[in-house]
Every structure is written in structure tokens, then in C-alpha cells.
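FYI - complex with inosinic acid, inputs then prediction.
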Amino acid sequence: MEVVIATRNLDKIKEIKEALKNLKIKIFTFSDFPGFPEIKEGNNLKDNALLKARTIAKFTGKIALADDSGLEVMALKGAPGAFSSRFAGENVSYEDNNRKLLSLLKEVPLKKRDAVFRCVVAITDPQGREEVVEGICEGKIVENPGGFQGFGYDPLFQPKDFKKTFAQMSLKEKNQISHRAKALEKAKLVLKKWMK
Ligand code: IMP
């Protein structure tokens, strides 16, 4: 079975490849397909994931797996959510987004900094078969960034029952508990079913 990961985000590709490594599938990425489309995202994780997977399945003629994910901060009424990558504006860095998040939470005490990472994974094939799965990871936003692993909001997110941030974990550790890992566990079952 051949599967294309429908993203240009190298950080996501790394995590997805690690999570799927035990499956008997050949994984392709954007670098295997010149002209790989750039997809404009909206304000809903499920719609975004489906749009990415459908577009890439059609473009490549292969099964496509797309991840759309975001961080929902309770004290900010669920923001930045689907706007996580664009929180501080278009084409900003992870650091810009982290700085904005910390500044908005400046007056919020640690016990009120609950947050959830959510990941929606869509799997589609060129014939129009589709499945959508989701994973979440609960935690809180720490007051000072910690760690250098991972990407995005990882230095600010401390998962529940842990004393370190995602950025202070190895990829293997993060992949045991993360929102993406949980969604991909379900995606693996879908792929196994489609293999039959
Ligand atoms: P997407 O490409 O629209 O799905 O944007 C995902 C954005 O959510 C990323 O750019 C990060 O800002 C954030 N994000 C998603 N998953 C993670 C994660 O595992 N760690 C840190 N940030 C994440």
C-alpha cells in the first residue's frame, strides 16, 4: 500500500513517519511530487483535513493522509484553535506565535491555563473513500518556555500528569501521548482495514 502525507510541514512529517513506521506501507511526501499543491485553510480542523487529503489524493492518484491540528486554550475561549499556525499573523514563526500566546496569558495564573491539543486526521483515496479520526491531549500552558525538541507550541505545553513540556520530551515520548499520536493510532486501524 502507498500513502502520501498531505502536508509540507516537515515537523509533522517527522512525527507521522515515526508513528506509522510499523505499518507495511510505502510513504510518500510532497518532495516526491513536483507541483504539490499549496492548500488554503479555513477555520475548521475537520474541513481543513478533508480538503487537504482530497486535494492530494486527486493530485497524486494515491491514498492521502492529512493532519490538521491546533491548540485550544480555555482562558482564551478555545483560541487559537484552527488558527494556531497563523495566530500572530500570516507567515509568522513558531516563536512569534508563542510570544503572542504568553503575552495574552500574562495575567492568568497557572491553575487557569488549561489547554487541549487537538489533531484531526483525514484519510482519503482517489476513488472518494474517506475516513476522519481525532486525537486530543490535555494539559496546560506553562509560564516560561521549556525545552528545544518538537515544534510549534511544544515549549509551552505541559501535558497532564507530566512535569515537563512536549519540547522537553524525545520524539518517542511525545509520540506515546500526543494528540497526533492518538489520532494516528486510529488512522492506522483505518489503513489496516483498507489493506484487506
Ligand atoms: P495546521 O498546519 O493548520 O494543522 O497547523 C498546525 C499548527 O498547530 C502548527 O503550526 C502549530 O502551531 C500547532 N501544532 C499542531 N500540533 C502541534 C504539536 O504537536 N506541537 C506544537 N504545536 C502544534
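The chain has a mean pLDDT of 97. Residues 179-195 form the longest helix (17 residues).
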